[in-house]
Amino acid sequence: MNIFVLIMTILGITTAVAGTVLAAIFLIPESKRANLKGFLKILADIATFRTLYIDKAIKILYVFATLCCICVGFFHLFTGVNSLEGAILLLVGPVVVRFVFELLTMFIILVNNVIEINNKMK
Q: Which one, out of 20, 21, 42, 93, has a CA that is 20 to 30 A from the CA of 64?
């Protein structure tokens, strides 16, 4: 292994440990989070999973996967090489993608509802 790579790896691990210690001291404790504002509050919300971003990522991935099915299916359909596969991908692909992403979204909605109920019970 190259000595430079080893040194950079050690520096990266050391920096990650220091950042974790600082986050544990300043961002994660509830008493410290009350006084945070701006960017540090956003970092604290990310570090403590106060805000979930996966639902936004799922929506973006859904649009991407659907467009991939449509575009790739369209190009395969009209190139003549894989016309049948293109037609299947063009027609069935978006439906399958929709079912998969609806299942993922249902799970996320369930988690969000449980969090909301938990917050109301406090």
A: 42
Mean pLDDT by 10 residues, the chain (122 residues): 85 91 80 78 78 86 94 86 84 95 93 88 82
Say whether both 34 and 68 belong to one domain. no
| Domain around 41 | 1-50
Domain total of the chain:
2
Q: What pLDDT, on the 0 to 100 scale, is given for residue 40? A: 79
Q: What's the whole-model pTM score?
A: 0.67
SS (H, E, C) 30-76: HHHHCCCCCHHHHHHHHHCCCCCCHHHHHHHHHHHHHHHHHHHHHHH
- Residue listed under structure tokens 């090489």: 81
Q: What angle do CA 41, 42, 45 make, to 5 degrees?
A: 85
Q: Which of 54, 42, 97, 36 is nearest to 72 (CA)?
A: 97
